[in-house]
Amino acid sequence: MSVAIEAGLWGLLAGGALVIGAAVAWYVKIGQRIIAAVMAFGSGVLISALSFELMQQAYATGGFMATAVGFLGGAAVYTAANMYLAHRGARHRKRSGTTPGAKQPSDSASGLAIAVGALLDGIPESIAIGITMIRGGTVSLVAVIAIFLSNIPEGLSSAAGMKKAGRGATYVFGVWGAIAVISGIASLAGYTLFSGFPSDVIAATEAVAAGAILAMIADTMMPEAFEIAHDFAGLITVAGFLAAFALSKAAG
User: Fold this and answer.
1) pLDDT per position in the chain (252 positions), as tens?
2) How many CB atoms lie within 10 A of CB 199?
3) How far out from the chain centre does Cα 219 lie?
4) CA 62 to CA 198: how far, in whole Å?
5) In angstroms, rounded to a whole number, what is the distance separating the alpha carbons of residues 233 and 239?
């Protein structure tokens, strides 16, 4: 199997967690505190992964300037796109639907915004998976696990909200299934498109993904986790960070 195809399959695996989360939300009644706890844990895992995998590798490859420019650029682009989508009905795309004031999708426009918002969250993560395979042809399992774990609560909470808004199973699973496939394609593209680029470009791209992921965590995942499980959100997030950190050291 070629490394490019393997990169695509790793991205598909990580994106497939969206479908798993959606299936759990569709067929099993999950308490909102559990959703928030998983969200907090996934946030900690992602923060650890982007710190010790993406940012560390970016700095080692391209130095501080390329890393800093990419990191801030990724956060800025994500924030601008997220602000636009918030006005199109996707502000609460990760919410499970019972949070006071959380506006749920009621028409095709907001449903499309939710789908685009999920792509906005997932594409930088998937590209990052592919880029980690450029060095040596092996994937960063820490990054894959982190993204997989963070995608489960996204699929879970968003699908729960869609269900309460009256969306059908075909729509919900169609959306998340398509995004999982696109995640695989993005991971494959991350490997194939950047393999021949100079090291500083690869470093900047890794940092862009890291910046976008961190902005996503701050804008969408942590607010949900804190609003519902605020008593324990910090502790659960730290536990997720520590778990990923331990896995990173064990893998290294």
Assistant:
1) 789 999 999 999 999 998 998 898 888 877 778 878 888 888 898 899 888 888 988 898 888 998 999 999 999 988 888 787 777 655 555 555 444 444 444 444 444 555 666 777 788 888 889 988 887 778 888 888 888 887 887 787 677 767 777 778 898 898 889 999 999 999 999 899 888 888 888 888 889 889 988 988 888 778 877 877 667 888 999 999 998 888 888 866
2) 15
3) 12
4) 9
5) 10
Question: Residues near 233 by Cβ (< 8 Å), separated by ≥ 6?
Answer: 36, 40, 222, 225, 226
How far apart, in whole angstroms, are the C-alpha atoms of residue 36 and residue 70? 30
Distance from C-alpha of 208 to C-alpha of 185, rounded to nearest angstrom: 18
Residue 45 and residue 149 in contact, taking contact as beta carbons nearer than 8 Å: yes
**3-state SS class at 39:** helix
Contact 228, 30 (CB under 8 A): no
* Cβ atoms of residues 18 and 172 within 8 Å: no
Helices (H), the chain: 3-27, 32-49, 56-85, 108-132, 141-164, 169-194, 199-216, 222-229, 233-251
Are 240 and 40 contacting, i.e. CB atoms less than 8 angstroms apart? yes
